[in-house]
Structures are given as C-alpha cells and as structure tokens.
Fold each of these.
Amino acid sequence: MKIPLLTVQIHYERDVVLSRQRARQLAGLLGFEHQDRVRIATTISELARNVFQYAKRGKIEFACDTGTGAMEVVISDQGPGIANLKEILRGEYVSETGMGVGLAGAKRLMDEFHIETAVGKGTTITISKSPGRGVPLTPKRVEEIVSELATNKTEDPFQEIQRQNQELLATMEELQKQQSELNQLNRELEDTNRGVMALYAELDEKADYLRRASEIKSRFLSNMTHEFRTPLNSILGLSRMLLDRTDGELTFDQEKQVFFIRRAASDLSELVNDLLDLSKVEAGKIVIRPSEFEIKDMFGALRGMLRPLLAHNSSISLVFDEAEGFPPLFTDESKVSQILRNFISNAIKFTEKGEVRISAALRPDNTIHLSVRDTGIGIANGDLLTIFEEFTQIEGPHQKKFKGTGLGLSLSKKLAEVLGGSVSVESELGVGSTFSVTLPLQYGGEVDAAYLSGFQRQLDPHRTPVLVVDDNPETLFIYESYLKNTPFQAIPVRSIRAAREALEAVRPIAIFLDVLLGHESSWAFLAELKRDKRTREIPVCVVTVVENEAKARQEGADAFHLKPIDREWLLSQLHSRVRPQRLLLIDDDEVSRYLFRSLLSATPFQMIEAVGGREGIETALEERPDVIFLDLDMPGMNGFETRRKLQEDSRTRHIPIVFYTANLQADDKLEEFEGVVGILSKDLSSREVAQAKLMTLMGEIKARIEAKVGAASSSSAEPSLP
C-alpha cells in the first residue's frame, strides 16, 4: 500500500537544498544503504533544480510502499513542459545553463522512472527505488518515520554543501580505486594475451613441422617400398625355382634353408605392400575406382582365393553365408575385398578349430554390414582399442606361431574410412571374435546424389538453406554442428555433380566451397557459378587449406577463409546476407530482458528493449518492429492493457504479438486476444530448448505473414465480375 510521508514545495532556491536534505533523511529512515542515499539525494536535487529553473514553482511528494519498503517520489510543476524529451533522455541535449543530463541521469539512478509532459501544461515525473531487502513496513514503523520527519531539523545550506562535497570526494576516491583495479586487470590481460599469442605461434610452428615430417615420411615410404619390391620379387622367384628343382635336386638341409629364405622374403614383401598402401592413404594419393558389383560374386571370389589357406588345418571350416537378394554395391570392389581378406586371414591364423563365417546384412540407412566371425582365441577387452593401430600385435602363443606386419587391421580401417565407412570389432577371450566393416551402398558422388534425391523432404521450411560443397565428412559435420539451432540449414554435398543437382532443386542463401575436391576442378566450378545468370547472384565463400585468396577473388569468390572454419565468421557471413528481423521486448524485469537477449546470440534477429508498457508503446510507434514480445505481469500498465492499446492504434495493429511470460494459462485463451500469435514461456528447461522454441515460433509467424501476403496478392489479381 502506498502511504504519503512528506511534501516539499519548490518556491525558492533554498527549497532545492531542502529537498535534497529531506530525500537523504527519508532514505536513511527507510533503511537504504549509504550509496543509495547519495543516489536518491542527487536525483531529487537535480529534478528539484529543473523545477525551480524552468517552471519557477512546483512540489515534491514523498511516499513509501508498505509492501516492499520502496520510496516513491512524484515531482510536478505547471511550467512550460518539455518539447524535446526524447533527445534529453537519450543524453543528446546540452542546455544553455548546464550539461542537460539531469533527466537522463535520474533515469539511470532510479529503479523506475516515468515522465509525463505536455507543452504549456507542465511536467510530472514519477520515480521509485527499492532498498532491495524486500522487508514490509509496519504501521508502527511508518508512524515513527512521519514523527521523525516532523521533529528532525534540517541543516543549513552551507552544511549541506559541505556534506555534498564530502560525498563527491568519497565517490571520486571509489572511482579512482576502481580505475586502479581496472588498470591492473588490463595489464594482467595483456600479459595473458601475449602468452597465448606466443603459445599459438609455437603450436603453429609445431603443426607445420609435423606436417612436413609426415610428408617426408610418406614420400620416403613410397620410394623405399618401390625400391624393395624388385629384389624381393627376385628372391621369391629364384627360391621358387630352387624348390621346384628346376636345376636339379636339393639336399634335405638345402631345401629347408631355401624354404626359410622364401618365407622371410614373403613376410617382407607383405610388409612392403602394406606400407605402400598406408603411405598412399596418408598422402591422399590412393585411387578409388568405383564400379557396380554383386556381394555374392565377391564372396565367390574370396572363397576360391582363401580356401588354400586352410590346407594346413582341416579342423577349420570357411563358411560364406548366402548373399542373395542384396542390392548391387557401387564402390571399389578391390578395396572392399582387401578389407575382408585381412579380416579372414587373421581369423584363420588365430582359430585352431571351429569355423570362420562371413556374412552380410543390409542396414536401414542404405549401408551394408559385412562381418567375419571366428571361433578362435578371442581378444581381451583391454586390447580392443589398440589392435587397429599401426604395428600393433598382441603378445601370445599364437602371435609367436604366426608372425605378421601389424599393419593389416590399421590398413583395413583406413581403407574403410576412404570408402566412407567404418570398422568395428567384438570379441571374448576363448570364444572368438567378429570383425565388421560398414560401407555405404553408393560411394562418393553417388552418395551425394542418393541424398539429394530425397533432400527436398528433409528441408526445414522454417530455415534458410546453405549449400556446403566439401568432400571431407568431418568438415561437413562441423558445418552442420555450427548451424544447429540457427535459422540456417546446411545442405551438404561432396562433389560438383551433386552441387549442380542441389542448385537445380533449391536456391541457397550462400555457397561454401572447398577448392580441393578429389580430382575435380573446383576453380572451374567457381567460375561457372559466376558466369551462369541463374547462380551469379548467390554469394560464394571459398573455405579451403590452399592459401590463395587472390585467385579465389579473381574467379569471383565473395569471401575467403582458411580451414579450419570459424563459427563466428560463418554466422557473420550468413547474417550479412539476410535482412535481420527486429524484435521488440516489452518487459520491466532486467534479468528477463538479459536472458531473452542471450537467446538471440546465434540468430539473425535484432532486439529492441522497452521497460514497461508505456515505454513499449512509444518504442513500437517509433521503431515499427517486426514482432513484439510482451510480458504480462508488469507494474502500472500490464501486458493485457498494453496489447489492447497496440491493437487500437492503426500504426501498430499489424505487428504480431507474442506473450513472453511464465503465466502459461494465457495459452488456453490465446484466441481471445486479437493480434497475439503465440506464447513463449520464461520457464523452459534449457537455453537450447528455449532457442529452438523461439526459432520455431518465428518460422510460424513468417509463414503466416507470407501466406497472408500471398492470399492478398491472389485476391487482388482476380478479375472483377461485370
């Protein structure tokens, strides 16, 4: 309940000093802290001086709210009014006698500030400030405050000036202390930044060194493996001739020696072949030759190729499950066969009895799952994470019996990744192991084509498409992650052919293009985009590891960025291509406004704030936002009254309104409120959920507006009846 406490008439200049003294005295009685007392006294003094200077006469009415303990003050006069109020409140006005910052300063210092003025009819300013403790005032305490105000004498003006100077000195000392702390913090930040920059430089140097070392290693392995192959083939051929007795019989010991030589050469040849394949994969020089083939045909070839490996052990059965009814695969058959050969060879090596079974299964995501299951010795759980590493072999009696290179599984993993798939293993000691490879039915560009054939159904109508052309699946995943919970949807393609098909079906807001796409000429595609009148207006952003911005700009690129892609740069490029929608939030609560502002951090929306209903209506008339988010529970003019006034004014009637409130009961009666198109709860469980809800709501509003515009256009185009 609001209770009047004191009224001070402003007739003479000394009344300005009196109003300052009374304000400080009342703030102390209401329990305000020292800094708040100074703020209140300064505010009242400035407003009283304005009254005396411009209106000559006026009054100041002090009151308190018994529920919250807040001080409420009304300053009124019958003077000439304020003609340039908005300019003054924005801090842009400089008066002839001063700085013109009294009203703007008072608004910042108080919790609530409302002003009503009219030229020739005077001005009324209502302000309030709460002590922050939220303790109600009892009737007895109110009586004590009134009695204290009536009996307590005020200081003379000279003493008041002295007190004001002391307060000013204390404030300046506090500001100087804060400035000193800020300077110290800035110095620490500068030192930290220098350290971080030095660390980044060192990391870049290390990364460059490792890259060069990797390139040298790949070249060395490639050259050396080729050099090794010639003598090894000679050794294998000559040993074969000796064992075949081409030039005569061998003694028992000679045959044994030649056999050892041949086995060592064979092991070394296998190592050389695996090293060569690995170096090709790591250097990105491995050639994929996709072709269409049937799984049953590949199984048949593997059966004939690997059956001789069982000659030394008749207690093992090599079983290929039936592979009828599977769709044909379009991928590199030799690479798939190589992966399975490695799996099967290992299974036969480490299985003493039982079976090695090869099977295939079709997955619902258009992939094929090929597995090799054995009944061998199995692998311990602790070794499952390391067996796909290079030169890794598990210690055990079977490993001593069957020596290998330790590269077969590592090579299989890399080949599967090159083909767009993955490998996995399940095993149990003493029971057996199952090695599997999962591959897409269509390799490379065909993957993109298969995806694009149905991508129209996957497009979100509430999001703007962005075409991403990159053959690296990790990079495409990064783009999709960066654009998650934004108004933009990534359309990923991995070839130029797929990009052309996408552009036939959808017009993206921008194209992000990697100029290194396997063996395709992306530079030529960039030039093609800029020549074609259908695509020349679409911005193309080149994102690549090739540091050649000049060439990209010459070919017509609108932007250039070196990998790795930066999320802030990506979103800034996209946001700069769209006209941002402006959202007006009318809410008296500062925390709610801050939280709402944080929801818009990764969106193309611009936020305008208004504190309270009256300011919200004025802002809506001045700014004309695209959508208004309106809090329902506000002091003074609540959300329902604000909505009604917005609907009554023809200038704001067309602006969609969304209730932004914790009062979910309003959703049940939403159809009763004209102009209200939705509700956004303040009580959503997480920022991600709230942001997703906001994006969905804005999409629905956009679709509704577009439908209304389309209907209006159709009706206006209809011929009139005679």
Amino acid sequence: MDHLTSRTRYRNAAAGLLGALACMIVPTTGAAQAPTDFRARLPQDEVIYFLLPDRFENGDRSNDTGGIAGGKLQHGFDPTDEGFYHGGDLAGLTARLDYIQGLGATAVWLAPVFRNKPVQGEPGREFSGAHGYWITDFTTVDPHFGTDAEFKAFVDAAHARGMKVYMDIIANHTADVIRYRECPANDCAYRSRADYPYSRQGGIEGAAINAGFDGTNFERLTRPDYAYTPYVPEAEATVKVPAWLNDPIYYHNRGDTTFKGESSLDGDFAGLDDLYTENPRVVQGMIEIYGDWIDRYGIDGFRIDTARHVNSEFWQAFVPAMLERARAKGIPNFHIFGEVYDHDPGILARFTQVDRYPAVLDFAFQTTATDVANGVKGTDALAKLYMADALYAGGEAGAMQLPTFLGNHDMGRIGGFIAKAHPDASADELLARTTLAHALMMFGRGVPTIYYGDEQGFAGIGGYGAARADMFPSEVADYATHPRIGGAGESFSTQAPMYRRLAEMARIRAASPALRRGRQIVRATSETPGLFAVSRVIDGEPGETLIIYNSATTPITVNIEVATASQDWSSLRGSCPAASAPGSIRVTVPALDYMICVSKDPA
C-alpha cells in the first residue's frame, strides 16, 4: 500500500540448499526441471518469500538509471538515498533463486515490476518509484528492473525449480499525472459526490453536464470536470499505457482521499490518479491488462494492492476473470490475495464474503502474533483470533489460504517491533522472541510469508524506508546503524541464525502435510504470557500433530489434552515423550521456545 510513499522517506555470494516441499520440488542443481505437479500444490502448501526487486540484488549495473538521462530527479537512481532507486533488478533476483529456495520458500512474491513514473513529489519532497506502485505502463517491465525477456527468464527459472511466482498488482490508481486547474500546488482537498455531483460543473450551482448519468450508464458520462477541472500536462499526454488510461474521464478526479467514507474509494492517494473502477471500460481494461501477464508468463498468483479502496463490484468481476484466465493457461490453483490494511478479522473477512476475494493478507494475525511473541498479550489472544476464522468465505477451510505475515515494507519488521518492545533485552532474548514469532506463523493455519531480510536478522527502525534496507551491500548510511537480530553477517549468508532457523521450520512444514493442510484445534491457552498449544489434523487420516509454544520467560511443564487415541508419540522438534496417557500428554517447553510432537495413532 505504497500510496503514501511520496510523503515519507524510505544488505552477497553464498547460496544454500535445504529442500522445500517433500516430493514436490526438485533440488536446485544446474538446469533442474520442475516436476509436472508443482502447479497442483494448494495455496496453503506454499511458503512465500516477499521482496522488493530494487532492494534485493543488483545483477546488472547497466540498468541502474533505467536508461533515462539526467540526474536523480530525472531517472530516480541514488543508492545513498533510501527514497530512490538502489539498483536491484530481475537479473539479480534470478541469480539468487538458490538462496531463496534454500531458505525453504516455495513461492516468490515480488513488488510491482511495471514501468513506473521515475520521480514524483513537489520540489524539495521528491521520491522515486523504486517500490513499483506508481505505474505509467501496465504492459511492460520497468527498465530499472530489466526487460520483459528478463522477467520471463526469472519466471522460467523459478518454475524450473518448482517455485511459484506471485505478482504484486494495482487496479486502484496509476502514477500521479493528472492535474487540477483549481489547485496548482497539487494539494486538492477531497470534494464529495453530494457537494459536487456528476451532473453539475464544479458544484451544485454549476452548469448542467453529464445529463441523465445515474452512476451506471457511463455512455452519458462525457465530462470529467464535475468536482475539479482535470487536465494532463502536455509532456505526459501519452505517458500511460494502454492509451485509454490517458483520458481523465476514467478517473474520479475528486482530490486527495481522507481515508474516510466515500473518499476512501474515490480519492487520490497523495495525488495518485484514482481510477473510476465503476466504469465498465476500466473493469474490462484491467482484466485485459492482467490477464495478458498470465497468458504471457504463466505466473501463479496476484497480490492485489489497496484492495479495500476499490468498489466491490469491480472485484466481483475481476477476480473470477483472473481465475478463469489462469485455468485456461493450466494453472488450477492461482492464488489471489488482497491487501486490506485492517487488523479486525471481521473487516478482513468481509472482503472474502462480499468482494469475493479467495484470500486477504492476514493483518489480524500480524498484530496478534507480534503481541504474543512480545509478551504484551496472553496466548488466549491467538485463540480468539482463530475463532473468527468462521467469518471467512469457506469458514476455517477458507482461512487456511490467508497469507500470514509478521511485518512488511509499509509497517516495518518483526525484529524491529521486538527490539522496540524490549530495549533492554539480551541478544539471545531478541533472537528467541523473533524465532517464536516466526514459529507461530510457520506452523499455524495460513500461508507463511517471509519478508526479505528477516532471515538475515534485519530489524530496521521503523516503516517505509527503514523497512526497505538493501540485501546487497548498501550505500545508505542509516542502514548500517540498524540492529540485526542474531548479529550482523555477510549479505545472503546461509549461516545467519534466523536463516538457519527459518530453513529448519520450512523443512519441518514441508515434510508434514498436517502442518500445511490440517484442520487446526486450539488445545491450550493462557491469559498471560505462557502456554499455547494447537493440534493439526487431516480429517479421515490417522495421526495428530501437536505444536506447543511457550511465550513466557521461564520453562513450562504441563499436561495438554489430546485425542484419546493419540498415545504413541515421536518428535519433529523438541523433547516429546514416547508415550502418553489416553487423552493427555505431559510436556516441558523451554522459555520462549516451541516443540512439535506427532502421534502415530489414529486421532
């Protein structure tokens, strides 16, 4: 949700192999071929790795300025400034696929790669489109990242390893190109539909225009100057692709959003041109644009930016069209998940029920898991969170498709949240809490999503620029001062403590279908920091997988209720008893740690 980045300021040669989904992904050796069934994996089978191409790896320095002449305010490249392009590209990303797969990730979600307006903002407050959310050309790759051929090479290389590729897309807005004559400083306040109806020019006292337009018959909407008088500067008259995007009639043109009420749907985000997504031409145009990316490259899913800021009817048409386009391409489990920046599971679930999203990013999990790992809340907060799974379309089964995460490029990193909450904690405690948070994500229901750099212990000191440090050696002075969970090491180190711990988690998860697809049963919670236990079971199949967490700073010895038939146990992690009484297992969990026990008996 990078619509605010124009108002804000924004670490290589080891590769590791550890495996991924058992019997589904081949080793990454040489010209490995993808198994024929990698597309058959369900969304919940994946471990997603989310990255910003500009901040990951610079594989080709010749494209650092995107082939644009001039200085940083023209081409947007300044590797010393956290708000500008740093040089990461698709060639670098492709060269690092072994590193990502070695972590245990099975899908790569990359921030938008479409051609962006290189620099936006008013004089003295300029920033670059390094993040990718200021699109001018929706049909091609931004030259700062490489070429369409290099994008195809990346997708093909990922598929050859049995890895999926998820694109980050936007349908809510384009880059800031349209201007309004009434506010040359580009700081236009939002003008509502009530005060500035579509039927009057410049307000209710204005001349009659768009006669007979009722919000559905768009052939009658012929003038866009009902609220402001929009125009496109001559130098940018044809900058947007496809060409229809250059016409102001396809935008709301009502000024900047306040993120409240109707302006949340119809307002410009910091000047970004808000598309009139109610218009059938816009709906069909976006279906054509993104369907073509599926057709051309055979990608495996979309993360959709700013989902909550587009009308429901748009998604009700767009989502099924994309799923059908993917099926026609031979992609049966195309994963679509929207960004709904809200921590209330009821609000999140609404977008699966009404807007008909298959899934949304689980911001509610992010908040709760962070609070539990920090000891701010008891573990019963997680139980309450999971009770809300019934609200999602498909109920608990639908909730299993929700990507779970601990931090991102907008809000900041889990390591930073933990370091801030425990300023006097030892390095060991910070590492333990960060590990615990990731274990909550990796073994709970949903699709675990690792934010690039967290496996190297990146913590940052806040959101936006501070959460977007370079994986390759950085020239940004501030990044060198950021703390590292587990200590600083070489870029792309496969020996970093968090890399090794995450790889262990991913290996365990890949080897256990119950940890990916199993129904989740909460077994024990605590009103204070301490015990949290859940079972994962696959209905109709024998066995019970029990995950026990301890968010307290002292060990816990406790009896936990399990299925009566679960008596013969083995350990996936930790010291599990070999046997237990019918219906109960006694375990000891170290402080800030977790264990996983598996029953071999029918559950």
Amino acid sequence: MTVRQKFVVLLVAVPVLVVLWAQYWPAAWWSFVIIGPLALLGLRDMLQKKRAILRLYPVIGHFRYLLESFRVEIQQYFIESDLNGSPVPREFRSLVYQRAKGDKDTRPFGTIMDVNEDGYEWINHSVSPIHLERDQLAVKFGGESCQQPYHGSPMNISAMSYGSLSKNAIEALNLGAKQDQFAHNTGEGGISPYHLKHGGDLIFQFGTGYFGCRNAEGGFDADLFKQKAALDQVKMIEIKLSQGAKPGHGGILPAVKLTAEIAEIRHVPMGKDVLSPPYHTAFDTPTGLLQFVQQLRELSGGKPIGFKLCLGKRSEFLAICKAMLETGIKPDFITVDGSEGGTGAAPIEFTNSVGTPLKDALIIVNNALIGCGLRDEIKVIAAGKIISAFHLIKAIALGADAVNSARGMMFALGCIQSRACNTDHCPTGIATQDPARVVALDVGDKAKRVARYHHQMMKNLAELLGAAGVKSLSELKPSHIMHRVQGAEVKSYEAMFPTLNQGALLAAETRPESWSTDWQAARADHW
C-alpha cells in the first residue's frame, strides 16, 4: 500500500474513530482542531498537480520542502560547480528547478568561486559584445548524402527510453520539446505511443537489442525499421554502439519495470530483466558499421543517420575514420557520450571506472576527424552532465556542434535523485512504471518546465556568445576558454589541447608522433 493510499484510509478511519471516541469522552471533539486542517491539507496535496512528491506523500511530503528551505542560502552559494567542473548534484538541481519554474536565477555579490584556485575556468569577453538571436544558434544535421536534413537546436533531450522512464515522463519531455522547438531522443527502448502523442521532434535511437526494429530472433528487422523511420516526427536516426555509464556492457531494464505494453513495444518476453547484448549483430567491423549507416539512410528516405558511442580505444575510432575514407560513406553525426553520463541501472565498476570522460573524448574525436579531413562533413554531439550554458559552451569549444542533456531534463521534470530508478519506487513518478506513482506526474505542468529550462539555456547561451563577441557557434574555438593550470599559469584550451591541422593524419610526414601507434593499429576491416 502506498503512502497515498494509507493517507486515504486514515482520512476516513481517523474521523470515524474520533466520533466513536467522543461518544464516551466529549473533549475528544477538540482533536478535530488538529485533524481537520491536516485532512484538508492532505486533500489539497493529492489534488494539486505541480509537485509529484506531495501528490504521492500528502502532508508528510511538506517536511522535504521545509528541510530544503533551511539550506536555501547554501544552495544559492554553491550553484555553479566545484573548481574541477564536476557537478555538485544538489545545487545543480536547484539551478535547473529555478529556470524550469521561471524563478529568478540571478546572483548578488559577484562570483561565488575563488578565481585564484587551480582549475578555475572562464570565457574571455569582448570589449565589443554583440547581440545574437535564437535562430542564429540553429544547427544543420545532414551531410552531402542526406536528402532530408534537420535544422535543430544546439541542445536536445538525451536518450532516455520508455521503460526506464514512465509514460507521463516521456509525454512531458516530448511536449516540452514541441513547445520550445527542440528534439527528443527516444532512447534504445523503441518509439512508444507516448513519444508520438504530442508531435515533438524525435531522434529514433536503437541499440544492440534493436528494440522497435527487432525480429523474432533478436536481430535487426529492416521492414520494421523502415516503418518507424518513415514517421514524420522522426527527424534523425541514431545507432547506439555504447553508453557512457556502462560502455561495452549493454542496456538493462529490470524486470520489475517491465510491463506488458513495454514488452510488446520492445518485442521481448515478460518476467525477466531485459538485457541488450554488449555488441551489434548487424555488423562486426568498422566497414560494416558504415555500410549499415548507408543501408539505414536508404531505408529512411535520406534522413540524417549517426551513431553514439562512449570512446574507448583511440585506435578503434581511427579504424572507423579509415573505414569512412575507404568506403566514402560518412555518418551525418556522431554522438560522443562521456563516461560520467548517468543511467537507471548499471554495475558500479562500469559506472565509475570504464570509458573516456567527455572532455578527453571530444578532443580525440574532433582531432581524429580533422586529421582525416572529415570534420566539415560530420556534426558532433556531446553528452555528459551538461547542465548550464557554460558547460554547453565548453563542449562546443572542444569540438561539439550541439549537446544532449539527460540530467538537466530530468531535474526539469522534478527528479530529486533519490536513486531509486532501478527499483520502480521513484518518488516523483519519473523513473517508475507503478501506476499509482506515474499518475502523480502532471504532463502539462512538467512539459512547461522542460520547455522553460531549454528556453532559458538558449537565452543564456546566446548572451554568453554575444559577450564574447562570437557571432555563431561555429566561431567558438578552444582559444575562447581559459583554464588556471596552477598559480599564475593560465592557458587556453587551445594551448592545453592543440588542434591538429586539416588532414594531418593522412601522411606520415605530417602525422604527430603521439598518434602514429594508434594510426598504424587501426584497420577498417577489423576492430
């Protein structure tokens, strides 16, 4: 029995007991002075739609907000990040909550950080700032072989599937994407009715389990894929090779969260954990991956096709680059997922100790594409704990064209990081399939919050670029971001992470020695 159900029982039982008690002790009627207001407060909590926690936990849920109010000054103080750029989860939630709810997010008394501490980062402004409009931030996805390019936002919703999230959470994300005109990645769980209900742009992702385009044996079904890819809402298609939180492991949907509807969408049996294999069966070489990209491009009618990976061995990514050069087939985009990315369920060893962090991965991917003369034809998307507009700018400066956000969008929905995603007991109705909990998340209200958060991020992004005198995202370079290395030593990202010259990897005489071993090890016909 949920807390909500228990409260309803008490709401009926307690007054009845008081009436019976008052028959023998008249003074008991005074207990209604306490019980009455609490009962009315509980009813109000269950009927309001803005706070899922109060809908699920009437009356007692107020203690959570009361305790939170006691630390509001601390939240305001540590709102950005620690000096190494690592998130401080509670404070980042506060930042997103403020923007999602339309509250003020400005700060008094100047910078909250010690600018003299090692690791402090900033973007240099210009004495001649400019004004940018939102349409100047649009990103075009689709290379020469793409017949249906997509003009999208520089920030979109990262991959989170129906199954991992509730139907109401999926609806709210998609409706928010529709309201502020950005894209919603389906995650590898397939396209559900809740992705389609409100008409928001979709990035159709599938992984090694081929959910949504899966045959009876668990392999890729071209006909099913063609049906899904033909949907007007589907603007891009993404092949998931690996995920930041558990690279080389495959996806996990615990059996406790598997409903009959989800099983039907994914074409999997009921009663056990849904495990994606750690590898694809549709291809097994870099050349095979590129040929698969071409197959999807033809099946989709020429929509943008890309793949997502958490970077592992540098030689293996160079092998993909060599396959592009040999086949002439190029993806329209590559999504780079940092190892710091999150998930609803993963072994702790994979979460903490496998995969390349986003900053390092972006530097490698960007330089590899530039060094092979491929960068201008392929868009790069970054994903990995990007919460503020400055995080977004740093990712773009290091080589991304756009970013995907999962954590920020979860916070906008009302996530409190209870870490119950894999138990089906999420207290906010976001990461659960329990109907009693799902209903507490109001789609209309949360969609507005998602849209507001994105809108404010775009506003802040434009203002930061304008302050730096940068006229477009493509003009943002590593030289714009400064980093205090130690003491008085300050370097730009360009000085710290030098960018290769165009085509530098293609000839031995121009290839940097630090890249030579991995380049020689890379083979287009073998991982």
